[in-house]
Specification:
The protein is mainly alpha-helical. The radius of gyration is 18 Å and the shape is elongated. The N and C termini lie far apart (63 Å).
């Protein structure tokens, strides 16, 4: 347990920030899961609309420092690759 006044305040701040970061991380992961599910189901229209929202969510999480910049880029790259595969498959069909 913190003893000094500043350490007590820092604990309170850390707890608040942790809650905010967890919420942002959870929200971003939910968007990613929804997009992956739409891609796996082959739902092109839903995937396209979710793609744009998901990219914005990832960027926001990176900007807030919840995700490292490289992790955000990796997510975006992999999701884009999966969406492009779906679009190519749809065009060929």
């Amino acid at each position: 347990m913190p003893n000094t006044k500043s350490a007590k305040k820092q604990l309170r701040v850390n707890l608040r920030r942790r809650a905010i970061n967890r919420a942002v991380r959870s929200r971003t992961r939910t968007f990613i899961k929804k997009l992956r599910k739409a891609i796996e189901a082959g739902d092109v229209e839903t995937a396209k609309s979710l793609y744009k929202e998901t990219m914005m969510e990832i960027d926001k999480a990176v900007k807030k420092g919840v995700f490292h910049e490289n992790k955000g880029s990796r997510y975006k790259s992999r999701l884009t690759k999966k969406l492009n595969e779906l679009l190519r498959a749809q065009q060929q069909a």
